Amino acid sequence: MPSADPITPIDASDCKHAWHPFTQMQEYFSNPRLHLVKGEGSWLIDAEGNRYLDGNASVWTNVHGHNDPDLNAALKAQLEQVAHVTLLGLNHRVASELAEDLASLTDGALPRCFFTDNGSNAIEVALKLSFQYWQLMGREEKRGVISMRGAYHGDTFGTMSVGDSSGFHQRFTPWLFHSKIFSAPSHVECAGQVQASEVQSSLQELEKILQNESSRIACLILEPRVQGAAGMRQQPQGFLKSAALLCQKYQVHLILDEVFTGFGRLGSLTAAEQEGVVPDFLCLAKGLAAGYLPLAATLTRESIFSAFQGHFSEGKTFFHGHTFSGNPLACAVARASLKKLRPMIQSGQLTESASLLGREISQNFATHPQVCGYRQLGLTAAIDFSPADRRRHWPVDLRAGYQVSLLARKHGLIIRPLADSILFVPPIAIKPDEIRHLVKAVRLAVDEVLPKLEVHSLS
User: What phi and psi, each to the nearest 5 degrees, are found at residue 111?
Assistant: First the structure.
């Protein structure tokens, strides 16, 4: 592992000038730092030539692996044409082709595509479109939002307002607008399988809000099937469909945040298709451009698009945009990625990978004394740690998950913690032997770190 001391120029520059996202920099400076210089498939390589499996899929984005020859070729071919063309009143071919590709995700039910460059902005667009739509329909009172307990939709002020991630956003509460929160379906874990309980209670809570306030509610926003930043907390099959039917019944838009769940993560192109749900807004990012370049999209219905048509003086224009919306390089990579991903899904490869991941996690952690829970769906999983005496817990600053993630590097793995948990989010195209390496490396790190924490004073 690299030294904690800044012994190279790049390390010195990093320590002197950088401010890393979601990182306590004092902690970062006091631990070994990792400088990555190359990627090959599911692996990343540091400046000293050490190889690490990318167990975080480069923040949940990577689909086909790093340095994929087909995606590289698409990127190079587009680069020889034009690197960037604004979509503000202009167009370029590859954006139009990708918009058509994305419309096919819902068989044309959501034919309109608004490009942005990250997941937070895809959500912001959906929220603003919903709000403005109801204004244009003469329903200005419909401006409220409903979201689910534990939700995380991004870090802009709009997305923080409709989230429920207090650890990330609580200090900004005075600047956020109010949203209604309903309880997520509660779960109990048994042998690694998530059992749904009180599902009807959650839906009844949602319906009660809609019964009382639907005349003032613009939209419901959900992360379908898996709430990633909440710790891979799952919803049971059928829950999404029931929520969608309630939105239809009470005339409230449904926004699905598939920034994380889209493009193979759960074994299909979208989670919504698994339950036959077509939302009013489908938000996509992360895997859309396969982890190569920033790209996001918000898909919506033709009826919503039509409401914004009119003379300029009518004030129906949607005034929102980003400099690199629909960047040609990103769009070209996204098209190439979709072309590769569809046959992968149809072949059953992703189903087999998910099954193997689940078996490996169960075999390694089902009876581990410091593992208090785990869950897995598709190519997502989480393992929760605690002292063997479940009545006690580790002080926050012991950082159990963080210590496990640091030591995992010694075993050839990059992976991220979430408090006293480890999240598994490998590249979609990960191979069977790499899945085994992923789980084994975490087990080795856990066995080295957690028994030592048992001897610390517990509170």
Answer: -85, -10
Whether residue 10 lies inside any domain: the answer is no
Alpha helices by DSSP H, listed for 262-315, are 302-307
Q: Following CA atoms 437, 438, 442, 443 in sequence, which dihedral angle do they give, to the nearest 10 degrees?
A: -50
Tally of CB atoms within 10 A around 4:
12
- Return the DSSP state at 238: T
Q: How many whole angstroms separate alpha carbon 254 and alpha carbon 252? A: 7
How far is Cα 17 from Cα 360, in angstroms, rounded to an integer? 41
* Residues 53 and 198 grouped into a single domain: no
Q: Please, which residues have CB within 8 angstroms of residue 282's CB and are 6 or more apart in sequence?
A: 105, 106, 110, 256, 258, 270, 272, 298, 299, 300
Q: Are 251 and 200 in contact (CB under 8 A)?
A: no
User: Which candidate, 27, 58, 30, 1, places its Cα nearest to that of 399?
Assistant: 27
In terms of Cα–Cα distance, which of 299, 146, 298 is closest to 213?
A: 146
Instruction: Indicate the pairing of strand 217-222 with strand 144-148.
Output: parallel
User: Does any domain span residue 15?
Assistant: no
Find where tokens 């919506």 sit: 300
Pairing of strands 281-284, 371-377: unpaired
Pairing mode, if any, of strands 380-385 and 371-377? antiparallel
What is the rounded CA–CA span in Å between residue 425 and residue 357?
11
CA atoms of 443 and 436, how far apart (whole Å)? 11
- Tell me the sheet residues that pair with 374: 383
Highest mean pLDDT among 26-35, 194-203, 250-259: 250-259
Domain end call among 310, 328, 345: 345
Give per-residue pLDDT as tens, 14-54: 999 999 999 999 999 999 889 999 999 999 999 999 999 99
| Residue of 167, 138, 240 lying closest to 418 (CA atoms) | 167
Q: Are 78 and 94 in contact (CB under 8 A)?
A: yes
The answer on 339 and 317 residing in a single domain is yes
Residue labelled with tokens 């499996």: 53
Question: Do the beta carbons of residue 384 and residue 374 sit within 8 Å?
Answer: yes
Between CA 125 and CA 298 the distance in angstroms is 7
Tell me if 301 sits within 8 A of 110, measured CB to CB.
yes
- Tell me the residue range of the domain where 109 lies: 70-345
Q: Tell me: the pLDDT tens digits for 346-374? A: 999 999 999 999 999 999 999 999 999 99
Rounded CA gap, 271 and 240, in Å? Answer: 9
